[in-house]
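Exam revision sheet. Question 4 asks you to relate a sequence to its structure. Input first:
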Amino acid sequence: MKSLENKVAIVTGAASGIGKETALLFAKEGAKVTVSDINEEAGNKVVEEIKGLGGEAIFVKANTASAEDQQNLVAKTVAAFGGLHIAVNNAGVGSAFARVADVEVSDWQRVIDINLTGVFYGMKYQIPEMIKSKGGSVINVASILGQVAFQGSSAYVASKHGVVGLTKTGALDHALDNVRVNAIGPGFIYTGLVNEGTMGKETIQALEQKHALHRLGQPVEVAELALWLASDKSSFVTGAYYPVDGGYLAM
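Answer key, structure tokens:
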């Protein structure tokens, strides 16, 4: 039996990168998946890819910084699949590089709205449906920068530290509801935004050296950890932060 057989999952930011690989892996393991993103075209392609593998999926366009969109996302998932058991709150954005005193207020608010408040909105509407489904697993995608700082990235660092704190509190609040809440802390992952083409070879090589394995991670390597946290194999795990960072935090 597949590890997520008869489970229903929401994955935000699922049109590309970590979110896409997570949605695909969950579907391969038997989950019915709601693919959510603001990129409708790319999101629908992921749905078609899942269907091509014999899985079940729908696409719901949602801005995670909108409480209304998040509520609608959960409602459409339950209407389509009859419940909710797993949620991966993955959608996020980076911040403009600037010292704290030079950060634009608008950029600060944008990053906090999407990366932190968006995770709260997700949990607020996801957890009640998980309780109705007799339990579930919430997986919040934080970052290595949810544990340490990175010069010039105050909004991003603050948002990801906040996600870790929110995760731990949510785990305590809903432990007796049989809802587990955990966070993943990816290191620098090779995606459409982090690669030699967009950042330059020297920058990528410098980032690689910050990881003990001297390479960047691949999205599927993060998805594999999300799969374990989503499954019953991690049934005694809640309130935890798991880095998947190639040794970045150990350096």
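Marking note for examiners. The helical segments are 17-28, 40-52, 67-81, 105-132, 154-174, 196-199, 201-209, 219-230.
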